[in-house]
Amino acid sequence: MEFNFNFREIVTASMVLFAVIDIIGSIPIIISLRNKVGHIQSGKASVVSACIMVAFLFVGEEILNLIGIDVNSFAVAGSFIIFFLAIEMILGITLYRDDQPESASIVPIAFPLIAGAGTVTTLLSLRAEYYVENIIVAIIINVIFVYFVLKSSRRIEHILGKNGLNVIRKIFGVILLAIAVKLFTSNINQLF
């Protein structure tokens, strides 16, 4: 078995996942959940979200094949989702958001907050361009970061403040927008 580790792919995939997961932008939601229920199981939520992402990375393509959709078509569709997520981040608007969960457990934190629809769509879109082992390393890097953010969310909110969080969201929104355009242009050619 040959591994194709590539530092550039790992960094790019990590940045894409970081922007899509948007754990920094989710700190206000995490804080309000923590205030409602008292405690968030950071380790458990991180491990479950990693399992969901890795499982979807491997099984997602088979599910698509089962219903007759190729990865390039899914990547183009994923580029639209990433595009709209970026628009939300840049403009500070909400195009679509689920109702806020009533309890802070695995379900609202691990799924859909960390490993939600945007994340799994992005994973399949990344798979169309990058080697799987590089995406797995990117998932691990992001899950470790998510764990530390969940553990120290109050401290991060206090240090960055509301304006700092908004600036970070907008910067990653622009990065995400550029990635959506690249993903669209590189996969749309293979459909025709």
From TrEMBL:
Q: Which UniProt keywords apply?
A: Cell membrane, Membrane, Transmembrane, Transmembrane helix
Task: Give the signal peptide as a residue range, or say none if absent.
Answer: none
Q: Where are the transmembrane segments?
A: 12-33, 45-68, 74-96, 103-124, 130-150, 171-188
Is the Transmembrane helix keyword given for this protein?
A: yes
InterPro entries in the record, alphabetically?
Answer: Multi_antbiot-R_MarC (IPR002771)
Q: What is the membrane topology listed in the Swiss-Prot or TrEMBL record?
A: Multi-pass membrane protein
User: Which GO cellular component does the record give, naming just one?
Assistant: plasma membrane
Q: Where is it located?
A: Cell membrane
Q: What is its main location?
A: membrane
What's this protein's family per the entry? Belongs to the UPF0056 (MarC) family.
What protein am I looking at?
A: UPF0056 membrane protein
Species whose genome carries this gene: Arenibacter troitsensis
